[in-house]
TrEMBL record:
<keyword id="KW-0863">Zinc-finger</keyword>
<dbReference type="InterPro" id="IPR004012">
    <property type="entry name" value="Run_dom"/>
</dbReference>
<dbReference type="GO" id="GO:0008270">
    <property type="term" value="F:zinc ion binding"/>
</dbReference>
<feature type="domain" description="RUN">
    <location>
        <begin position="62"/>
        <end position="194"/>
    </location>
</feature>
<dbReference type="InterPro" id="IPR013083">
    <property type="entry name" value="Znf_RING/FYVE/PHD"/>
</dbReference>
<dbReference type="InterPro" id="IPR047332">
    <property type="entry name" value="RUN_RUFY2"/>
</dbReference>
<dbReference type="InterPro" id="IPR047335">
    <property type="entry name" value="RUFY1-3"/>
</dbReference>
<protein>
    <recommendedName>
        <fullName>RUN and FYVE domain containing 2</fullName>
    </recommendedName>
</protein>
<dbReference type="Pfam" id="PF01363">
    <property type="entry name" value="FYVE"/>
</dbReference>
<feature type="coiled-coil region">
    <location>
        <begin position="423"/>
        <end position="495"/>
    </location>
</feature>
<keyword id="KW-0862">Zinc</keyword>
<dbReference type="InterPro" id="IPR000306">
    <property type="entry name" value="Znf_FYVE"/>
</dbReference>
<keyword id="KW-0175">Coiled coil</keyword>
<keyword id="KW-0479">Metal-binding</keyword>
<dbReference type="InterPro" id="IPR037213">
    <property type="entry name" value="Run_dom_sf"/>
</dbReference>
<feature type="domain" description="FYVE-type">
    <location>
        <begin position="508"/>
        <end position="566"/>
    </location>
</feature>
<dbReference type="InterPro" id="IPR017455">
    <property type="entry name" value="Znf_FYVE-rel"/>
</dbReference>
């Protein structure tokens, strides 16, 4: 402060040599502090000159505006101050794109401009990307916010800057605070076609020295014109007296016109009040008519839904009854089929046993025939022996031949009788088997008919299930439509309550503090209306959006209204 005051006195007394000596002495003691002070002063001059010229310019700034170009040059020098030199394969590199690129990680909102900078085709160097980033952040009016987030992280900046750099000292915070004033400026900068890699960033001091020289010359003219002041004052007095008289007449006429305008204003206010009352009454009538029409539609839809539901319930019960009957019939058919299959298996087993018995009897018959042949052979042998025998008491040949004939006839009759009995037995068994086979064929045909009937019943069951599912889906859709109608009625009731309650829309000039957090509004902390309650809040307390009955699109609401509306919506949904 002492050095700045001495510098100011030396400039007013035109003692340039003394000022130069003092600044040289300060530079020899702490050269980095001197650089920071110079950069801070240049930033103040550049930002102040840019804001004043932009406000007098009165329209959107472009890239060719000289004060804006000088501002970017000064910001580039401030960001480059104390930047560490990093060693790479190609040599030593000193670029400010590294710390600016870290803003994307600290503030996710900066990711959009960082991605845009990386996608620009004409940028090949990190310095060009940093210059493009500064221009895009200024157009977005978030340059001060991004740099404020960056300077708060000293641990990250220490990797890129020396300990005595501007970004790590108090001067950096002051510069970031000055950047907040640039939010009033609208800039439209074309970054895509501009050559930002090869620009030379040189500060033009003539723009700021011109103002000092003009002030010094005007001071000299003022001092030289002091002796002629009384004469000029007398002439000015005469001129002013005539002007006062003319103005007095104009004041009288203006007062008359003002009184007339006040009366017209009172009449207009009365007309506005009447029109507002009529508008309020018409809105109330319109809301009531809308509610009646909506209620009628809802009642009609509800009656239709009840009738449809009753008819669908009857159809559903009938389908369930038919399904139950078909299931019972299917169960009976399946049980009968199981019984028939068991009977068929038993008959097959009996057939096998009969066949086995017939084979055993055939084997027995063959064995008896063999025995009969053996007996015959023995009788023949005995007969031959008897003929050869020389017994004294020989039986007469005729008697013997009769006996043999009788014996053979008796034996043949016995064999014939046995054969007939076996034949009759086999014929009876064959008849029984034929009857069993015919009975099994009839049962097989009945089983096939039952299978066809079972498949038909299965198809009908599937169709009935499909009809039931379609009816249940229709019932669900009707329930959804009914719930939507109820929600619409609730929204209309809320809108009617809001219209009848007459919520007050608070004016901007009446609010100086946020109603929720009670923080004072400023350039950085702006005012935002809650579209539900009409009060004014800061951005942090009203950073919510919900659709209201009066507006189909989501609008800004405060935290209190947001919680209340969410609770109401959840209760309606439940």
């Amino acid at each position: 402060q002492i050095v700045d005051s001495v510098f100011t006195r030396s400039r007013t007394s035109s003692s340039v040599l003394t000022t130069f000596c003092l600044r040289c002495l300060l530079a020899f003691r702490d050269p980095m502090a001197m650089e920071r002070a110079n950069l801070l002063n240049m930033a103040k001059l550049s930002i102040k000159g840019l804001i004043e010229s932009a406000l007098s310019f009165g329209r959107t700034l472009d890239s060719d505006y000289p004060p804006l170009q000088q501002f970017f040059v000064v910001m580039e020098h401030c960001l480059k101050h104390g930047l560490k030199v990093k060693k790479t394969f190609l040599g030593y590199n000193k670029s400010l794109w590294g710390p600016l690129e870290m803003v994307e990680k600290l503030c996710p909102e900066a990711g959009e401009i960082a991605a845009s900078v990386r996608d620009l085709p004409g940028l090949k160097t990190p310095l060009g990307r940093a210059r493009a980033w500064l221009r895009l952040a200024l157009m977005q009016k978030r340059l001060a916010d991004y740099l404020r987030v960056l300077i708060t992280r000293k641990d990250i900046l220490s990797d890129f800057y020396e300990s005595s750099a501007v970004m790590l000292e108090e001067e950096g915070a002051v510069i970031v605070g000055l950047l907040v004033g640039l939010n009033v400026i609208d800039a439209n900068l074309c970054v895509k076609g501009e050559d930002l890699d090869t620009q030379v960033g040189v500060i033009d001091f003539s723009m700021y020295l011109k103002n000092d020289i003009d002030d010094y010359r005007s001071e000299e003219r003022r001092i030289s014109g002091v002796p002629s002041v009384p004469i000029k004052l007398h002439a000015s007095f005469l001129c002013l007296s005539s002007t006062v008289q003319g103005l007095q007449g104009r004041v009288d006429s203006l007062e008359k016109s003002n009184s007339r305008l006040i009366e017209e204003l009172a009449i207009a206010k009365n007309n506005i009040i009447k029109l507002q009352e009529e508008n309020h009454q018409l809105r109330s009538e319109n809301s009531l008519i809308l509610m009646k029409v909506t209620q009628g539609d809802v009642n009609c839809e509800l009656d239709t839904y009840k009738q449809s539901r009753q008819g669908l319930d009857e159809m559903y019960n009938e389908a369930r009854r038919q399904l139950k009957e078909e299931c019972q019939l299917r169960q009976d058919v399946e049980n009968e089929l199981v019984v028939q299959v068991n009977m068929k298996q038993e008959m097959e087993l009996a057939m096998k046993l009969l066949e086995k018995d017939i084979h055993e009897k055939q084997d027995t018959l063959i064995g008896l025939r063999q025995q009969l042949d053996e007996v015959k052979a023995i009788n023949v042998e005995m007969y031959q022996k008897m003929q050869v025998s020389s017994l004294p008491e020989r039986i007469p040949l005729n008697y013997m031949s009769e006996l043999l004939s009788v014996f053979f006839r008796f034996q043949l009759e016995t064999d014939l009788k046995i054969e007939r009995e076996w034949r009759q037995t086999l014929q009876n068994d064959l008849e029984r088997e034929r009857e069993t086979v015919s009975q099994l064929k009839a049962e097989a045909q009945q089983i096939n008919a039952l299978k066809k009937e079972f498949h038909r019943l299965q198809d009908e069951n599937t169709q009935l299930k499909g009809i039931c599912e379609e009816q249940e889906q229709a019932l669900e859709e009707l329930g959804c439509k009914l719930s939507e109608s109820k929600l619409k009625i609730e929204d209309i009731k809320e809108a009617n309550k809001a219209l009848q309650g007459g919520q007050v829309w608070l004016k901007d000039k009446d609010a100086t503090h946020c109603k929720l957090c009670e923080k004072e509004f400023s350039i950085s902390r702006r005012k935002h209306h809650c579209r539900n309650c009409g009060e004014i809040f800061c951005n942090a307390c009203s950073d919510n959006e919900l659709p209201l009955p009066a507006s189909p699109k989501p609008v800004r609401v405060c935290d209190t209204c947001h919680a209340l509306l969410l609770q109401r919506c959840s209760s309606n949904t439940a």
